[in-house]
Amino acid sequence: MIAEKIKLLREERGWTQAELARRLSITRNGVNSWEQGLSTPSPACLVDLARVFSVSTDYLLGIEATAKNLNDLKLQKANEDRIAAQKLEEAKQLAAKIEEKSVVLSVKTGEGGKLFGSVSTKEIAAACEKQLGLEIDKKKMVLPEPIKACGTTIVPVKLHREVTAKLTVKVQEA
């Protein structure tokens, strides 16, 4: 299907395979392979072809805007929206669980309550799983600066692009 479209569009413009290849910055053999149906253009080349021929990629791929295709697209979009809403709701529920509890970490300290090193997001995530039964990805925790002293720290946890929970972390001497 795409092979015939490429050849038809090229011939309508009176271009040789070499001319089309030059406009796309590829080899003539590449264009020949497409027209013979031996290979298909990569997504990037497909976009370039659409630009060079001034047509849509859907046209090149043979996708028509039929009622069925439009309805399928509408159903697909509705399903994606439903899944996105479900993920947002799950993130909100997890945020509520996180914010109502706190995590306690016992660490070795030196004089004045200063820690040897700092508390990492990996340690906080492990404590969340052990103490709260919540599996939180350490990469979602946003520590503006390392925790280097005993006390209470609020750690933002980015659960969703619209939801950030506040995890209370209490660091105490072991």
Provide the descriptors you would attach to this structure in a database record.
single chain; alpha+beta; 3-stranded mixed beta sheet; two-stranded antiparallel sheet; 7 helices; 21% strand
Briefly, what is this?
This protein is of the alpha+beta class and 174 residues long. Helices cover 51% and strands 21% of the residues.
Task: Write the SSE topology.
Layout: H1 2-12, H2 17-24, H3 28-36, H4 43-53, H5 57-61, H6 67-99, E1 102-107, E2 114-119, H7 121-132, E3 147-149, E4 151-160, E5 163-173
Parallel strand pairs: 1-5
Antiparallel strand pairs: 2-3, 4-5
Helix pairs in contact: 2-3
Radius of gyration: 29 Å
Class from secondary-structure proportions: alpha+beta
Order of helices and strands: HHHHHHEEHEEE
* Major β-sheet profile: 3 strands, mixed
Word description of this protein:
This protein is an alpha+beta fold. 51% of the residues lie in helices and 21% in strands. It has seven helices and five strands. The strands form two sheets. The chain has a three-stranded mixed β-sheet with strand order 1-5-4. Strands 2-3 form a two-stranded antiparallel ribbon. Strand 4 and strand 5 form a beta hairpin.
